[in-house]
Amino acid sequence: MAAETQNLYPNCDSSVWLRSCEEEVTEPLDGNINRFAIHDGIVTYQCQFLKSNTLKKNRAANRIVVTEFGTKSVHDPCHTIFDRVAAIFKPGDSMSDNAMISLYPFGDEIYAFTEGPIIHRIDPVTLDTLDRKNMTDCIALVNHTSHPHVMPNGDVYNVGMSIVKGGLRHVVVKFPYTEKGDMFERAKVVASLKPRWPLHPAYMHTFGITENFFIIVEQPMSVSLCGVVRNQLANKPLASSLHWYPNHETNIVLLSRKDGKEWKRYRTQTLFFLHIINCFEKNGSVIVDLCAYKDPKALDAMYVHAIETMQSNADYAEWFRGRPKRLELPLDAPRLAKVVPTILADLGCETPRIHYDLYNGKPYRYFYAISSDVDAENPGTVIKADTVTGVTKTWCEPNCYPSEPVFVPTPDAKNEDDGVLLCALVWGGDREHEVALLVLDARTMLEVARAQFRTPSPAPKCLHGWFLPQTTNI
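The structure corresponding to this sequence follows.
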């Protein structure tokens, strides 16, 4: 499908934008991949399911036979209790490999991520699934975050859990960039941290990185290891293994990038988070900006049943009542010093993005996000937040729901916000067969262009994406 549009991207060569998208089951986190390709003012759109083992098994059985994060599979009479016990020791084989959350480059290759140990290599042109990698094989990870950090030199860092001598550890893994060879074969652990609760390690969706530190936020939302075993045997989804401890504070840990050891630990109020906005060092402190909630009910709100009954649930909007907050960690503070967060903007913000290539891990001013205030006049709002003044600018359209805004700088950018934002749009009501690529001026938040398509089936709402200039080798 193709659509013409003018001035789609100022002074830009041909480009490709990939999105990891969702499809409804019990929790809307089972997905496919979208691609918007831009060439000479023409935009093409394509969409394809990730060819995971999970998809193949479910299609072969014509039902859900692999348990997902929040979706229980149907009973398989051929799968005995002994098979389930054996599967506990093969996490890469027993877990769903439906990598539906995000897409990241490793050298000249693109991989689809979830929080399980399996990632899939994707052809960015055809969207075909080319390869399947199990992190348990190359670096002994049983899980990892779905948001690794890609450094300017091509190195990639991620945080996961690993079972080592002495027990479970949060580990930081480095995948060194190489023009030839396999980045995964060269992977190595560069830092580790013993969880504050050995049998209840903190749930971690993202982590932070600065010039000198890795930042690990141990929120009081944990993954119960005993619960994982019980739920595996009982065929219950992973979400049943998550536990919230409302009477415990949040720990923020700095790990040295020099020697990999714990450098200092801080405390702050009880909070739940999914996404770190950015971290940086300034004036003798480490600054951590994140999208925070008072509790994890935002996860409950993502289930299909909760969405279907939201109009009759007076508390639904409060479940999503989060705010972007800043934690300032003085480097000369004593161990376990308590820090009080400040609010960066008085709007609910989620799936935040920044001018990543130049400002990741460095002092920055602006971030971009979508609204998490579901009771706002226009809940589908794209937000630009100024972290210095607290001023926000927004874009919205009735009944329209944008994806995470991806910042793309102009080739001659002089200021942090010189560039455009790319968002995938879907609509509610009788427009569910429409999808569009929206381009906003990142400085003014005014619409520059859009390319709109009609799809044969309902268009899925996207989660996270990655922009690829077509001049790369990918």
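The chain has nine helices and 34 strands.
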